[in-house]
Amino acid sequence: MTKIAxxxxxxxxxxxxxxxxxxxxxxxxxxxxxxxxxxxMASWDSPWARGLLPPVEDAAERTKLWWATAAVMVAGGGWxxxxxxxxxxxxxxxxxxxxxxxxxxxxxxxxxxxxxxWHEDVEDRPDSSSFPSGHxxxxxxxTAAVAPTWPWAGAVCAVPTALVAVERVHSGAHYPSDxxxxxxxxxxxxxxxxxxxxxxxxxxx
Length: 205
Known about the structure:
68% of the residues lie in helices and 5% in strands. The protein has helices at residues 21-42, 47-60, 64-76, 78-106, 134-146, 151-170, 176-204; strands spanning 4-9, 12-13, 107-109. The longest helix is centred in the middle third of the chain and has 29 residues, at 78-106. InterPro entries: PAP2/HPO (IPR000326), PAP2/HPO_sf (IPR036938). It is a multi-pass membrane protein. Keywords: Cell membrane, Hydrolase, Membrane, Transmembrane, Transmembrane helix.
């Protein structure tokens, strides 16, 4: 699949052609605002950030957190837990395909500059495109797919999901817009998983 030309480099969107001055002003303003937000989030040095976010990152790596959560649901949640776990895993896998298999192949964006970050986590960033956040997409998809079947479990999952989104910016892995795009992909993936059985039944009927 052909990539869109290096669209975002260090947070800057390169619009083909001259474009209109107003459009360029809006894009530059958005870029500047996002960079400021990313730097502010990167500068957080509170005890809770130092103590909580790194373990969240480790747990979410390779979706270990969500696979473990699904296993707990299956083991202790009865039929509702099994159904919620199945939906969550299906949503998570769909989101990963959309974000990592499609999004990152279409849009090439560099990670935020390392000099913005004071901690060493920034050295462990992947080399893939920054856009979108695959971790956020998987987390949101899992939670959004679980919630309709088991609202209580979905509410519990929402807490680490929010922490994953914050951590992806704080660690230097992503810009805020990467995380926002990942969240949108996650919601879309959960919606697809919920709609798929009904669409399949219609086709079979």
